[in-house]
TrEMBL record:
The chain crosses the membrane at residues 12-30, 264-285, 312-332, 344-366. One of its GO terms (molecular function) is transmembrane transporter activity. Pfam families: FtsX. This is PAS domain-containing protein. InterPro entries: ABC3_permease_C, Macrolide_Exporter_MacB, PAS. PROSITE patterns: PAS. It comes from marine sediment metagenome. One of its GO terms (cellular component) is plasma membrane. Its main location: membrane. Residues 151-171 form the PAS domain. It is found in: Cell membrane. It is a multi-pass membrane protein. Keywords: Cell membrane, Membrane, Transmembrane, Transmembrane helix.
């Protein structure tokens, strides 16, 4: 029976190894998801409605924006080329006094973008009506001069400090003045570092509207926006979604992974417990006589349960020792996909071990207690 017993014990160790591995991985994945979902992105994505805007309507843009801003529950309206999570327009800019170019992402927008998205200006001032009037497109743009905002990453790439950047002239196709420096914000997923970004005042390229709402009576606010839209625009249906949905969509793969690991870790624990339950039943059946004699000699139920569970819990301990380094390596490698990530905490491994040990102990106790509480004389007669 030695070979058969060794195989059974090995299977128990393997099952609990898998269970512990999956528990640790699931907890770490859920922690990272919680981190990315709650991290301060540097802009406000809550209660912001996103509405696709037809570039053909740009000549009416100011009137449409004003009408939407007047709807009940609307705090502010801004327009930009695209949503923050979609920014991928790459371009080059140079400082006027340094011809060496740097590569940046670009976001054409109107003068309300900072207010509506809650961007934080750390140097300089927001776009103003003076800047809007200075965007002169007459005479084929002969007098046009851009107004720019740079993020911290762009300022650093240019070799400046934020205060030094304000008022500088940079060239992006044509010259413009740096009005302000905004604090770095995450316009891509946390898998990636924050790239240099230039926000340029150019309402001709608006393709997306952002509507910041109060958050009370949301349905009424949306109905008001839809009514205003239909009154002003007959060529395009009213379509919208919330800005935070775009951000959540960046982590669909991780959410699916978490769901799969949660399901499989639960299934693995169940299978491991069933195996342990069966092995306990088998062992107790073989030790019926021994247990009967111990009870006659004065052993209590806790004494017998301790005797029986000791060997099985050693198997769980072996599984824990073997699974821990494997799980650490796996989750560490997975976290490397994120530029911004959590630190792996030691307590996760301790908690996974304790949970597994408690579940195993309860499983053993449930089966062992039947034999241990039986009449010892009856057990001896059975033998």
């Amino acid at each position: 029976f030695t070979g058969s017993s060794t195989l059974r014990k090995s299977l128990i160790v393997l099952q609990f190894m898998i269970s512990i591995f999956l528990i640790i991985a699931t907890v770490i994945i859920l922690q990272q998801l919680s981190y990315v979902q709650n991290k301060d992105l540097g802009y406000n994505r809550e209660q912001v409605i996103v509405i696709p805007f037809d570039p053909l309507l740009v000549p009416q843009y100011d009137d449409i924006r004003s009408a939407l801003a007047a709807a009940p529950g609307v705090l502010s309206v801004a327009g930009a080329y695209e949503e923050p999570t979609h920014i991928d327009w790459g371009d080059g800019i140079t400082a006027k006094d340094d011809p060496k170019p740097i590569t940046v992402n670009a976001l054409p927008s109107d003068e309300n973008i900072v207010k509506t998205l809650g961007l934080q200006i750390i140097a300089g001032n927001d776009f103003s009506q003076v800047d809007v009037r200075g965007f002169d497109t007459s005479n084929d743009g002969a007098n046009l001069r851009y107004s720019f905002m740079l993020n911290e990453a762009a300022v650093k790439a240019l070799g400046w400090k934020p205060e030094e950047a304000v008022g500088k002239t940079i060239v992006k196709n044509r010259e413009g003045t740096v009005k302000a420096v905004v604090k770095d914000f995450h316009f891509r997923s946390l898998h990636e570092a924050i790239n240099p970004l230039v926000i340029l005042l150019d309402k001709r390229l608006v393709g997306t509207l952002f509507v910041k709402i109060s958050g009370t009576q949301v349905s009424r606010t949306i109905s008001g926006l839809e009514q205003t839209w239909k009154q002003r625009i007959q060529t395009r249906p009213f379509e919208f979604h919330f800005l935070d949905e775009d951000y959540d969509a960046l982590y669909k793969a991780e959410q699916r992974t978490a769901a799969v690991f949660t399901t499989f870790s639960s299934l693995a624990i169940l299978l491991a417990c069933l195996g342990l339950f069966a092995l306990t039943a088998y062992t107790m059946a073989r030790r019926t006589k021994e247990i009967g004699i111990r009870k006659i000699l004065g052993a209590s139920l806790p004494d017998i349960l301790s005797l029986v569970s000791r060997d099985f819990l050693k198997l769980v301990g072996i599984a824990l020792v073997m699974a821990t380094p494997l799980a650490y390596y796996a989750v560490h490698q997975w976290l490397q996909k994120f530029t911004y990530r959590i630190e792996i905490q030691w307590w996760v491994f301790v908690a996974a071990g304790l949970v597994t040990i408690v579940i195993a102990f309860l499983t053993i106790t449930l089966q062992a207690a039947k034999t241990a509480s039986a009449n010892p004389v009856k057990n001896l007669r059975t033998e």
